[in-house]
Amino acid sequence: MATDIDIKAQALSSARTRILALQEQMTERVLAMAAEVEKLMDVVSATEAKAFLKARCNLPAVELSTYVGFEKALKGAEEVLRTGRVSFPVVKALVAADADTREDVLARIAAGAQIDTREKQALASPVPLSPLSL
């Protein structure tokens, strides 16, 4: 009986470790894409960058505004996003959010809160996140 518990505990612990590592990698990829788009926009206009990324890199149109807007909205918050293992949908919502909401959510992430789909959807609405929702 104790062996079954040990096996389950080990499986859960191993899965958690692997999943957290994958989340970190996903966040790193989002940040790397944003950095590449920023470099591109240092050389060409946002319109040209969007056309190039869509036509030549097959970047979905729904992702373009996030990567193009990242520099203006989230530049300097990379470490908070990295530490919070923030997913692309949350980054997308943060880029689209107003400055006050974005700062509030970044502060929550910095304090250790995990923002999930429910909170991400709240970013799109004018109603601020409830402290109890985290």
Q: How would you portray this structure in words?
A:
- The mean pLDDT is 88.
- Helix 1 crosses helix 3, helix 3 crosses helix 5 and helix 5 (88-96) runs parallel beside helix 7.
- The protein has 134 residues and is mostly helical.
- It has helices at residues 2-41, 46-56, 61-74, 78-83, 88-96, 99-110, 117-124.
- It has one domain.
- Pfam families: DUF7111.
- InterPro entries: DUF7111.
- This is DUF222 domain-containing protein.
- It comes from Pseudorhizobium tarimense.
Q: What portion of residues belong to β-strands?
A: under 5%
Q: How many β-strands, per DSSP?
A: 0
Overall morphology: elongated
User: What is the averaged pLDDT score?
Assistant: 88
What's the alpha carbon Rg, rounded to whole Å?
Answer: 18 Å
Estimated structural class: mainly alpha
Spell out the helices and strands N to C.
HHHHHHH
Largest sheet: none
Helix content class: over 70%
The helix count comes to 7
Q: What ranges have pLDDT less than 50 throughout 5 or more consecutive residues?
A: none
* Tally of structural domains: 1
**Straight-line N-to-C gap:** 36 Å
Protein name: DUF222 domain-containing protein
SSE arrangement:
Blueprint (H helix, E strand, L loop, with lengths): L1 H40 L4 H11 L4 H14 L3 H6 L4 H9 L2 H12 L6 H8 L10
InterPro entries: DUF7111 (IPR055535)
Organism: Pseudorhizobium tarimense
Pfam family, one: DUF7111
Brief overview:
It comes from Pseudorhizobium tarimense. The chain is mainly alpha-helical and 134 residues long.
Keywords for this structure?
single chain, mainly alpha
